[in-house]
Structure formats: structure tokens, C-alpha cells
Write the C-alpha cells for this entry.
Amino acid sequence: RKSLGKNNLVDHLTDIVDQYGVEHNLIDFELTETAVYDDQATMIRILNELKNRGFKISMDDFGTGYSSLSLLSAMPLDTVKIDKSFVDDIGEGKDDTKKCIILRHIIGMGKELYSTRLQARELFERANDVLGFRITDIMFDGTEDELKMTKVTQPAVFLHSVVAFLTAENLPAPDMVAGHSLGEFSALVANRTLAFEDALMLVSKRATAMQKACELHPSTMAAVLKCDDAVIEQVCDSITDEIVVTANYNSPGQLVISGTVQGVDLAIEKLREAGVRRVLPLKVGGAFHSPLMQTAQDELAEAISQTHFSVPICPVYQNFSAKGTTDVETIKHNLQQQLTHPVRWTQSVLQMVEDGATEFVEFGPGEVLRGQIRRISSQEKKKKGE
């Protein structure tokens, strides 16, 4: 970010790449939305210069910062990586027009799979039968109001991820799997713990239960950036008359808190008093991964108890424990606990690496997790002095 103001920055970057004989189209400069440069005119000029020299440009974490479509239209972006929090609350009664535009593009990728691969088409049709309505018609041709329906949003994202995985060609069996929040259900299909139909039904019931929990309590979330996790945890623990907890450990320097509206507001105030400069309230309709989701957890637990779980072919590293397991009862317990406890994604990735993971393959809309994994591994290498 600081380098954007330097003279001859583009020439300097080009010289470095050319020095090693790397083709420009193989280099992707990633702009994190939460660190968008203040001088947008300068930023856009530099990005255009890089683009004109054949480099690729992408934006990560879209939905946690400005989320300005006018800014996006001015940027020469090849890729926009949608942050999960951006679509979590679609259908919660807020002005979702811009979010639905983005969501339509996400699930539009599923339409391409449906149109080009017979196996994908068969899976989507099976999903229509399981859900009892033609979700494909809504995903591909539905109105904005239809896309915002609780019964559509989470199953639609799940379907895109799972269908992409199940129809991938020349893909070896995984040695370990993990998924972020909703993605944990996709991971359990990938390691054959859950059948496609069973996982989809659980996702549908989970979405409905979460919606009902959101309606019970006024609640919200906020992203805290460039702050030590321990500071955020201490602030949350110090608030005892309201509910506010850590909810998503996404990557080093990016943690999301969740709780009552008053609790989150108080935490934001205390964090700013502690010198934290980047605290971003999220426009969500509920306190996901917090005790306020207890009623949703109870409903999900009942659904899980009635669903068949098989012994997986490889460990799943779950959000609740951040540890790998193949024990079916442990998997069930952790899956339901996820709704009221934080997503320990940073800890999960670190544990996977410690257990031997050297290559990660992401299936889903965009490359959000890939970017988070890069930041997690990079931070760990810095700690070890590598």
C-alpha cells in the first residue's frame, strides 16, 4: 500500500519480473479491498499501467471494505474474490440489490457447469428433487427477490462448490479436507462422510434455522483488521453485560466479532480506544457463530441425529476444533457446535500444514480461501524466520 505512491513503481515491478524471465500474464497483483489506497485516482492509474503491460489484477476480500461497484467499474480487474460475509445475510430484509448482482454472477458459474457437463446437470436435477422445488430455475433465471430467499442462498453456494468438485476431471482423492463455515458441509461430501443429497438437506435446514435465530435477537458482526487476536479476545471477554465474541479467525490480521448490536458497538468503541484503526461493521442480519445461534444449533443437531454419516476416507479439519478427525461421532458434534462457536480457519490451516499438507485445492465461487491460506502460511514462515 505504501509503495503505491513511489515514482516508477510499475517500471520497478516490471524489471523484477523480467529479471527472472517470467511471462507477465502469469503474475497476478492482488489488491485487498480492506486496504484500498486512499488516493484512488493514483491507484487506478497504476493498476491500468500494470494491466497494459500484461499483468493480471484481482481484488480480494470483496464485501469487507468499501464494496463500491463504481470503484470496481473503474478498476482493470481480472478477478473479484467475494468474502463469505458478503453473502451470509442475503435475505435478511436489508437492501440487497448490489449483493444480488454479485450473487447472480457467483451462481452463474454453476449455470455454466449445468450447460456443459452431463454429470453436473444430473446433480443439479437431483438437488431439485431433494429440495422439493426447482432451485436451478431460481439460480439461473430467478428474480432478485427469489435469489434472496433463505431456502435458496446457502444451498445455491453449496451446490456450486460440490458440483464443481464432483465433476472435476483427473482429481486425486484428498488426503485431508476442510471448509469455512458453510463450506464444511462441502468438505464432508468431498471426503465421503455425507452423501450429496443428505448434505444438501442439512444445508437447507441449517439455513432456515439460522434465519429464524436471526429474527429472535437484533444482532450483527464486525471485521477487525490488522490487530493481534489476543487484543480482540481480551476486549470481547471484558464485556459482560452484552454478548460479543470472536466469530471468524479468517487469517492473520483479519478476525470477525459477533454478538448483540449493543455488544458489538461497545467492542468497536473499546477497540478504537485501544488504537485499532480498522474496525468495519458488517451489514449482516445476525450474529453468526455466536451463542445467539443456539436455537439454530438445536434444530441442526436434531437434523444431524437423523442423517447417516459414513466413516470418511480422510480426516476433516473442522471449524470448531481446528483438528483433523475421522471419528463419525466427533464430526457430528463439531458440525453442530460450529453454529455457536468461532470458525477457527487460521488454526485449521496451520494444523493441516503441520500434519503434512503441501498443496491446497479450492472448490467454490472465487478464490477467497486460497488467498487466506497464502496469508496464513506467509505469516507462519515469518514467525519461524524462513
Notes: The two ends are 23 Å apart (CA to CA). The beta strands are 28-32, 56-62, 79-82, 177-178, 219-225, 244-251, 254-260, 278-282, 316-317, 324-325. The longest strand covers residues 244-251.
